[in-house]
Amino acid sequence: MHISKPLLLLWAVACIAIHAFGQNAIDGQTINLGEAAASNQTLAAVIDDQTINNRETVGSNQTLAAVINGQTTNDREAASSNQTFATYIAGSITKPSPGQSIYGVKSWQTNGTGWGTSAEYRMKIRGRNYGGILFSDTPTNSTLYVPRQEPFSWPIRRYEFDVLWTHEFAPVRHRVVPYVTSGAGAIALNGGSTGTHSGWDRQAALVGGAGSDVRLSRLITLRAGFTMDSFKASTYSDPAYRSTGTIMVEPRIGLVWGFGLPHPH
Questions:
Q1: Are 94 and 113 in contact (CB under 8 A)?
Q2: Reported pTM
Q3: Residue 121 and residue 164: Cα distance in Å, rounded?
């Protein structure tokens, strides 16, 4: 069959056009795939940024929570009372001490062991330091031991008024607060006024002690401790009697109530 040259030329042009169109389509598909990959990478980067932002937000929230908790703790501490009033069951244990009458008769004397009541007021001065007063009322017995004679005892009532400085230490396990205290006190003894009773007598004492507070709530605390008094023993209103120094230990336990406005910082 005879094909003219124009037809062959047209056929060649058509083949070239088809080939060019196919190549363009392939290139376009490749470009689209590349753009899709780039879009996926951009999306991944956005997701990573969002994850980082979320982590930063979580970290910020945790920091904010810590700050709030710290502020709450500070607010609680600031809101705590700066004055306390305590009532105790108190005891007195006195060390026997030697004495001597004007006639040279030597003896031993003691106020023995007794139990009574006590009350204490404290007010915050600065930081963990408090000033306060302590009053005790303790019924007991006085006893004189004279060689080759029967001990002689009679009832006596002891009143004590102390002015104290107290320092509290940092809390232990968030509830127990140890403290130490020191100061001076005045003691009055009432041995009765009839018969062989000894009447009124008085002593001055140096006072030291320690103890712990166990917090039951923000305003109520259980306190257990002791004070130790160093003083010259009673002469039982006998100016001819010479007494010597002695020591008395006073254990006490009771409840403490907090009140008053927060202490200014």
A1: yes
A2: 0.67
A3: 10
